[in-house]
C-alpha cells in the first residue's frame, strides 16, 4: 500500500512540476489567467505557473502573419462584375487586446478587408481598377487598420493578387484592345506619311531656293563679267583714241588718217560689190570707178588689193546706169 502511494505521489509531483514550468518560445506571448481572470502576459523564456490556479489561456504570435483573402465578386462603378482576391499582412501589437478584444482576429480582419475591397472597387470603373491597384491597397490598409486598432492588431499592408472579369467582359476587352491597336497603327502610319510629305515639301522648297540663289549668282557673275569686259574695252578704246590723237598731232598725221579712212572705205565698198550680183550706182560713183582704175595701180602697198577688188566690181557697173 505504501509503495502504491509512493508511486502516486511521485506521479503527482512530476505532473505538478511540468504544470509549474512554462517555456515560452521567441516571438510568442502566453496569456495567463488566474481563476478565469487575466493575470499577466509571459514573454519568451522560462516561467513558473501555479498549477490548478493559473493557466495558459491564449498563445499569441508576435511575428507578421499573412492571411489569404479568398476571392470575392465585386461590382465596379460602371456595373462590371470582377472577381478579386488578395493577401493581408498583419501583426499582433497588444496580445491582451488580441485575446480579449475579439474572438478571432484573423477572421475579423479578413472580413474587414473583403468589405473594404468591395467598397473601394465600387468607386472605380473597370479600367481604373486595373491601373490604380496601389491606391486601392492603401485605402484598404488604412480602413482595416483603423477598425482593428481596438483589437491590438496592426495591418501593415494589403496586396491585390488578381482582378478577373467575366469571360464576356474579357472578350469585349480583347476586342477593344485590338481596335485600339489598329487605331494606333493607323495614326502612326498617317503621322509617318504626314512627316514624309512635310520633309519632301521642305526639300523641294530648299532645292528651289538653292536653284534661284545659284541662278541669281550666275547672273551677277555674268553681269560683272560683261561690266569688266566693257570696262576693259573702254579702256583699250580710250587708249587707242589717245594714240590716234597723238599721231594726228605729228607732221602729215592728218594725211595718213585720211588715207587710212579711204582704205577702209574702199575695202568695205569692194566687199559689197563682190557680194552683189547686180549693182546700181550713181553717176558720181561710176566716175569714181574710172578713177580707181587709174589710181589703184599707183598706190604703194596699203589699199592696192581692196581697190583692185572694188575696181573689178565696178567694171560690172554701167556708166550711170544698171550693170
Describe this structure in words.
The chain is of the alpha+beta class. Helices cover 60% and strands 20% of the residues. A 3-stranded antiparallel β-sheet has the order 3-2-5. It has a 3-stranded antiparallel β-sheet with strand order 6-7-8. Strands 1-4 form a two-stranded antiparallel ribbon.
CATH architecture of the domain at 65-165: 2-Layer Sandwich
CATH topology of the domain at 65-165: Tetrahydropterin Synthase, Chain A
Beta-strand content bin: 15-25%
Question: Could you spell the SSE succession in H and E letters?
Answer: HEEEEEEEHHHHEHHHH
Model regions low in confidence, pLDDT < 50 over at least 5 residues? 298-323
- Helix tally equals 9
- Count the E strands: 8
Distance between the termini: 193 Å
Radius of gyration: 64 Å
The chain-level structural class is: alpha+beta
Shape: rod-shaped
Assembly type: single chain
List keywords for this structure.
rod-shaped, 9 helices, 323 residues, alpha+beta, three-stranded antiparallel β-sheet, 60% helix, disordered C terminus, Tetrahydropterin Synthase, Chain A
Brief digest:
The protein is α+β, with helices and mostly antiparallel strands and 323 residues long. The chain has helices spanning 2-20, 95-100, 105-122, 126-131, 133-148, 167-248, 253-275, 283-295, 304-314; strands at 21-24, 28-34, 37-42, 45-48, 54-61, 65-75, 81-92, 153-165.
In terms of topology, how is this protein built?
Blueprint: H1 2-20, E1 21-24, E2 28-34, E3 37-42, E4 45-48, E5 54-61, E6 65-75, E7 81-92, H2 95-100, H3 105-122, H4 126-131, H5 133-148, E8 153-165, H6 167-248, H7 253-275, H8 283-295, H9 304-314
Antiparallel strand pairs: 1-4, 2-3, 2-5, 6-7, 7-8
Amino acid at each position: 500500500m505504501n509503495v502504491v502511494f509512493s508511486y502516486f505521489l511521485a506521479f503527482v509531483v512530476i505532473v505538478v512540476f511540468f504544470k509549474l514550468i512554462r517555456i515560452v518560445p521567441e516571438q510568442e506571448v502566453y496569456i495567463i489567467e488566474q481563476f478565469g481572470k487575466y493575470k499577466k502576459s509571459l514573454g519568451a523564456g522560462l516561467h513558473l505557473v501555479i498549477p490548478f490556479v493559473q493557466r495558459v489561456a491564449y498563445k499569441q504570435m508576435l511575428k507578421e502573419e499573412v492571411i489569404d483573402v479568398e476571392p470575392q465578386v465585386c461590382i465596379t462603378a460602371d456595373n462590371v462584375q470582377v472577381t478579386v482576391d488578395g493577401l493581408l499582412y498583419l501583426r499582433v501589437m497588444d496580445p491582451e487586446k488580441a485575446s480579449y478584444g475579439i474572438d478571432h482576429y484573423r477572421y475579423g480582419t479578413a472580413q474587414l478587408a473583403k468589405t473594404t475591397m468591395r467598397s473601394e472597387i465600387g468607386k472605380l470603373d473597370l479600367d481604373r481598377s486595373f491601373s490604380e491597384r496601389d491606391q486601392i491597397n492603401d485605402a484598404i490598409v488604412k480602413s482595416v487598420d483603423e477598425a482593428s486598432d481596438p483589437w491590438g492588431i496592426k495591418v501593415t499592408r494589403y496586396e491585390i493578387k488578381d482582378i478577373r472579369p467575366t469571360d464576356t467582359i474579357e472578350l469585349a476587352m480583347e476586342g477593344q484592345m485590338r481596335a485600339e491597336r489598329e487605331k494606333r497603327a493607323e495614326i502612326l502610319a498617317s503621322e509617318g506619311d504626314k512627316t514624309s510629305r512635310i520633309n519632301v515639301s521642305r526639300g523641294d522648297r530648299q532645292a528651289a531656293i538653292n536653284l534661284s540663289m545659284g541662278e541669281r549668282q550666275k547672273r551677277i557673275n555674268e553681269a560683272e563679267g560683261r561690266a569688266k569686259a566693257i570696262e576693259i574695252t573702254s579702256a583699250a578704246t580710250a587708249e587707242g583714241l589717245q594714240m590716234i590723237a597723238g599721231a594726228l598731232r605729228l607732221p602729215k598725221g592728218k594725211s595718213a588718217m585720211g588715207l587710212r579712212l579711204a582704205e577702209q572705205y574702199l575695202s568695205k565698198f569692194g566687199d559689197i560689190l563682190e557680194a552683189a550680183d547686180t549693182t546700181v550706182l550713181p553717176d558720181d560713183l561710176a566716175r569714181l570707178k574710172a578713177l580707181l582704175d587709174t589710181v589703184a595701180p599707183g598706190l604703194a602697198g596699203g589699199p592696192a588689193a581692196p581697190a583692185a577688188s572694188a575696181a573689178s566690181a565696178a567694171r560690172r557697173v554701167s556708166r550711170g546706169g544698171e550693170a
